[in-house]
Amino acid sequence: GTGKISDFTLKELQELDAAYFFDPKNNYPFRGKGIVFKTLDEILVMFSNIRFNININENNLLLIDVIADIIKKTGSEDRILVSSFYHKPLKYIRKKHPCIATSLSTYEIFKLYALYKTGLLFLHKRIVGDAMQIHEVLGTSYIANRRFIQSVKAGGLKVHILNVTMENQLIRTMDSGSDGFIVSDLRIFNNLEEGR
Fold first, then answer.
1. Rg (CA), the chain
2. pTM assigned to the model
């Protein structure tokens, strides 16, 4: 299938091979193995002891309410972090669903980093949100530095580094004082661990 997910019904999506494009470097080993798309509530129930980061990439408040209802219905509030680059959905979740943890939006990260760079971060008394998820670089600034991370953590936030794709980047991330990282390929982490 091709096109936007929202153009399909759930039944149509579940008829597709969910692993069709997975792992091209290894000749698509999971194609045709019966792997189908699952709904969010199925995933949260199936993996009831796993933490999840749900990234919302649109400003659809109705969708946010549906996701929040599923999180609450499955009793998953204590193991979900909702993230978005957009400010509006995160602000909405914090107001309407305060029991659900949120990351900072790009706007909020820019604001914090600007205060940090000018030495005025101490003026920001209350940081909303529960975590800051950042790429190593923002524009031309290397923001995954230990001092900025420690300053943000002192304000009560967890810090996660996004899109770790290389072993040397993973080493920098692990040395940065961040609380976690998101890798695109788990083999990078496994290779590093085997080498230590």
1. 19
2. 0.85
